């Protein structure tokens, strides 16, 4: 057996307190392929953490059977800071309550640091060049000096993943089917991942804005070739994806176990784990650009009610929801309609039904980029 479990301490944010990141490792350090899987970076998104629990049980059995071929690193609860945050009995796990922002944004952008250090050293030998870039990324990250606990968490997680062949960040939406975020250069190589999870939406972008965790791992591999004269042959050597495991309320052992099985089959297909994954399921969707994802916002305050189910294929102008004002003097005038602005698939609805003006109430995956969308393609 090759498993080890370690705890990486984070700097204490206050006297008398301490937190740590728990890391499960399988296989021999440095073995290839290396897969990194984490859950709960948004600490109030529980489906991934339960799936990671089931994944660890399966990996323990595979490890005992000698079936680990590469190196696997699993962080089942990636955000001990967010896990500790509660306000008036409500868990708050997406944002740092000390004002440090979204836990899945603002990871170190390492490509501009690495580029001048390796300029002129790439040879066109893909295997050698990938090793060189990975070593340079690790060295650049090691030099980072985090100023606070949240920044230290970002550095810790990226330090575990930046040299991996595969990085899977498990999240969930409010109410949604399985969907996947990927860097555009990773498609269609990552099609097996989307099909294994039977994703109903796959959203592609080279840059989604604010450097989330998955892009901090994958984007150096397509940014460096643009920064280096000798980088044209550098392959996209890190398949990093954010897998959204349905909605926040989709937390049960049967579903989480099925997700763990899908992870194992994907690792088998990628040669990280021995075994036959069986036939690859048929695709359930066409890929769409993240820039074509319409976020429908509440025009007024009130109670949102939906007229379309998740997965509905909509046309521009279709009625999607109403915002109801129960305090209206005339009930006949109490409903404000919300309509689709693009053709596409309705893939996300809000979990909380009391909304304020500007709150996102639904998302539609459109096939064409939306004009004027801007550089920030994700929610805050």
From TrEMBL:
Keywords: Hydrolase, Metal-binding, Zinc. Its cofactor is Zn(2+). InterPro entries: AstE_AspA_cat, N-alpha-Ac-DABA_deacetylase. GO terms for molecular function: hydrolase activity, acting on ester bonds; metal ion binding. The keyword Cell inner membrane does not apply. It comes from the Bacteria. Residues 33-267 form the Succinylglutamate desuccinylase/Aspartoacylase catalytic domain. The keyword Membrane does not apply. Coiled coil: none annotated. This is Succinylglutamate desuccinylase/Aspartoacylase catalytic domain-containing protein. It comes from Inquilinus limosus MP06. The lineage of its organism: Bacteria, Pseudomonadati, Pseudomonadota, Alphaproteobacteria, Rhodospirillales.
């Amino acid at each position: 057996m090759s498993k080890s479990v370690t705890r990486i301490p984070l700097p204490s944010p206050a006297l008398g307190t301490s937190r740590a990141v728990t890391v499960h490792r399988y296989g021999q350090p440095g073995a290839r392929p290396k897969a990194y899987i984490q859950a709960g970076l948004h600490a109030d998104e529980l489906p991934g953490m339960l799936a990671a629990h089931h994944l660890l049980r399966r990996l323990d059995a595979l490890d005992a059977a000698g079936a680990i071929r590469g190196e696997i690193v699993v962080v089942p609860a990636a955000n001990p800071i967010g896990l500790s945050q509660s306000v008036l009995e409500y868990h708050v796990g997406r944002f740092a309550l000390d004002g440090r922002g979204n836990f899945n944004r603002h990871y170190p952008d390492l490509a501009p640091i690495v580029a001048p250090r390796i300029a002129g050293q790439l040879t066109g030998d893909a295997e050698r060049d990938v090793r060189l870039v990975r070593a340079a990324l690790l060295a650049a990250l090691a030099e980072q000096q985090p100023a606070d606990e949240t920044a230290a968490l970002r550095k810790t997680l990226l330090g575990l993943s930046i040299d991996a062949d595969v990085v899977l960040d498990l999240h969930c939406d409010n109410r949604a089917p399985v969907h996947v975020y990927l860097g555009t250069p990773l498609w269609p190589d990552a099609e097996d991942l989307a099909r294994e999870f039977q994703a109903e939406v796959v959203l592609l972008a080279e840059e989604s804005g604010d450097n989330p965790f998955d892009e901090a791992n994958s984007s150096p591999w397509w940014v460096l070739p643009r920064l280096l004269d000798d980088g044209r042959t550098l392959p996209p050597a890190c398949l990093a994806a954010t897998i959204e495991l349905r909605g926040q309320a989709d937390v049960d052992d049967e579903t989480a176990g099925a997700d763990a099985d899908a992870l194992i089959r994907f690792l088998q297909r990628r040669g990280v784990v021995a075994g036959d994954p069986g036939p690859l399921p048929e695709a359930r969707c066409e890929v769409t650009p993240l820039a074509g994802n319409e976020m429908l916002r509440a025009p007024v305050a009130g109670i949102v009610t939906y007229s379309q189910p998740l997965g509905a294929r909509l046309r521009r102008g279709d009625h999607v929801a109403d915002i109801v004002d129960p305090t209206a003097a005339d009930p006949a005038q109490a409903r404000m309609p919300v309509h689709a602005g693009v053709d596409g698939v309705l893939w996300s609805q809000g979990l909380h039904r009391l909304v304020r003006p500007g709150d996102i109430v639904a998302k539609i995956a459109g096939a064409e980029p939306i004009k004027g969308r801007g550089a920030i393609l994700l929610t805050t």
